[in-house]
Amino acid sequence: MIIRTAMAQINTTVGDLEGNKKIILSSIDSARSAGAGILLFPELTITGYPPEDLLLHTGFLRDNIRVLKEVEAYTTGSDTMVVVGFVDFSLEIYNAAAIIQNGEIKGVYRKMNLPNYSVFDERRYFTPGSRPLIIMSGSLKIGVNICEDIWVPAGPTNDQAIAGANLILNLSASPFTSTKNLTRMSLLQTRAMEYSCCMLYCNHVGGQDELVFDGRSTAIMPDGHRIVARSFEEDFLVIDIDTDQSTRYNLLEGKRKGYCKKAEVEEINVIIPQRKHQEFLPEETYRVSSEEDDLIDSLVLGLRDYTKKNGFKKVVLGLSGGMDSSLVAALAVKALGKENVIGVMMPSRITSDESKKDAVELAKNLGIETFEIPIESVFDSINGLMRPVFSDRTHDVTEENFQARIRGIILMGLSNKFGWLVLATGNKSEMATGYATLYGDMAGGLAILKDLYKTQIYRIAKRINEQTGTEIIPRNVFLKAPTAELREGQKDQDSLPPYEILDGILRLYIEESFSLDEIVSKGFDRETVEYVLRLLQRSEYKRKQGAPGIKVSKRAFGKDWRMPITNKYRD
Ligand SMILES: Nc1ncnc2c1ncn2[C@@H]1O[C@H](COP(=O)(O)OP(=O)(O)OC[C@H]2O[C@@H]([n+]3cccc(C(=O)O)c3)[C@H](O)[C@@H]2O)[C@@H](O)[C@H]1O
Ligand SMILES: Nc1ncnc2c1ncn2[C@@H]1O[C@H](COP(=O)(O)OP(=O)(O)OP(=O)(O)O)[C@@H](O)[C@H]1O
Ligand SMILES: NC(=O)CC[C@H](N)C(=O)O
């Protein structure tokens, strides 16, 4: 049996019910013109994902149902079966998929496995569904399920396959991490091959606060053949699926034989149009991108969507001539175009000529507008103002931080006056150790490097230069030692262990949850590990007040990291 299927990998926006509806309706038009019998959307299509506490407002829930009804009405006169995500609402709420055809909702599936780990919080809101769903179309059986349903062992896919499903439709909102593509792809391939099923997996794409969804929606056949949509951008895949391939593989390999018991499933009937010939079965299109390319693409999409979806056009940042601000500026230009990025040089008497030269060269290479606003007079003024109070106390970190805070005031002033979003430049190594000034260089709306260790930052910056084929980020920025330039001769490495060691320790503690002793057993010096973990533990208060970042790792500071501030436990 040949079915023409379409997957709409779309970039919806949380809470933009009308905007999302427009995208859904236009995808329905595309599916109709393509002659598709099935059109699949990502998880919670109507509300966007994750809607978080909007789900606690009945007005929002009702508006989502109203939009669903409008989508339902729009399908009148068409036999394309549309599978769209929405919030089902009847006293309790369910993360659900509506199966709609010709102006009628034929059935609703409620997600059974609600993820509640990492960045997911679905049990805070949703009640789990209780029954897998099968769509019957003559001898064709199609299972519908939602994202996490396919990740768990013995989930609904299992029951649907045992009940005879030869095609599985999964609506997904699976956020990017640097290792997710490999895990996800091998999972999907395993499911398709273990159940001898054809599978359509439609993932969301776009940035939503600290999350980035990378798309890569996938059609996968029982022989493991994969057709994958574009990453980090919208896409519309049309594929003719021969569902008999599932039947043949099942007979050949006998995987479902012996499962005579009928699984507990709900059945609905929908007539799905068939085709005579398989015209669209693209070549295998699965490709593995390099970690650096994926990271660049995810940061660019995360920054672009955060900026646009929050109503900003331009961004502003302090340009120090150091690596962090150089990389943020380069990524911002990739995301928004050079005309929408403004760099501000704010030298003090400590700022070296080398730093000034590097900042100017970077700005020139990127072609961005710059301002130079020296901070010396304000610094002198605040020192004068405080002299009677500080009396004979020696200069220390207080005065260092004044400089960072003056820069924060200037950037926020530019933001207020011109409506530019301030980009903070802090990285994960700094955020972990508290090596940043609260209300100073931590000021800003979005900290795009917040989930990248300093050692990764150098690799990504190198890759940006390779991609552009020029030294956009000047060579000297790579060569000189990192410095906060808040006191004469200061180097990061005066306060922190070398970044290779620091990042190694942090990664084991944050991403792998190792204990102090376990980290030491990996070959790190005990005193250094103790020092790093103390820094990490005592700077929690800073992270709680910092700008959101973009999650790209297994565990990011943000939704994924909920350490108490007041905490006496020491490893
Ligand atoms: N548990 C807690 N809960 C709430 N607040 C707490 C707190 N513990 C301290 N505090 C507050 O925090 C203050 C200390 O924090 P803060 O004022 O930020 O200052 P602090 O952490 O002492 O100093 C900032 C450090 O970051 C370095 N830095 C700054 C800027 C850029 C870079 C760079 O390379 O990128 C590095 C700088 O050289 C210095 O070593 C305390 O004076 C106190 O007011
Ligand atoms: N002279 C300066 N002019 C403008 N902004 C500055 C200046 N010094 C610091 N900043 C801002 O404060 C941020 C924090 O400084 P920091 O030294 O950590 O970053 P960096 O100089 O970009 O990188 P690195 O840490 O590799 O030297 C900078 O990224 C920049 O946005
Ligand atoms: N929305 C979901 O159910 C996502 C959970 C899933 N494990 C993922 O990251 O892909």
Short descriptors:
571 residues, Nitrilase/N-carbamoyl-D-aminoacid amidohydrolase, Rossmann fold, six-stranded mixed beta sheet, 19% strand, binds nicotinic acid adenine dinucleotide, binds adenosine-5'-triphosphate
Number of strands: 20
Can you tell me the number of structural domains? 2
The whole-angstrom Rg is: 27 Å
Please tell me the overall pLDDT: 95
- Based on the structure given, which CATH architecture of the largest domain is correct? 4-Layer Sandwich
CATH topology of the largest domain: Nitrilase/N-carbamoyl-D-aminoacid amidohydrolase
Give the strand order, joined by hyphens, for the main sheet.
Answer: 13-12-9-8-7-6-15
Q: Name the poorly predicted regions.
A: none
Name the CATH superfamily classification of the largest domain.
Carbon-nitrogen hydrolase
- Oligomeric state of the chains? single chain
Termini separation comes to 60 Å
Distinct small molecules bound, one entry per kind: nicotinic acid adenine dinucleotide, adenosine-5'-triphosphate, glutamine
Q: Please give the share of residues in helix.
A: 25-40%
Strand content: 15-25%
- The CATH class assignment of the largest domain is Alpha Beta
Categorize the overall geometry: elongated
Number of helices: 19
Biggest sheet architecture: 7 strands, mixed
Structural class: alpha/beta
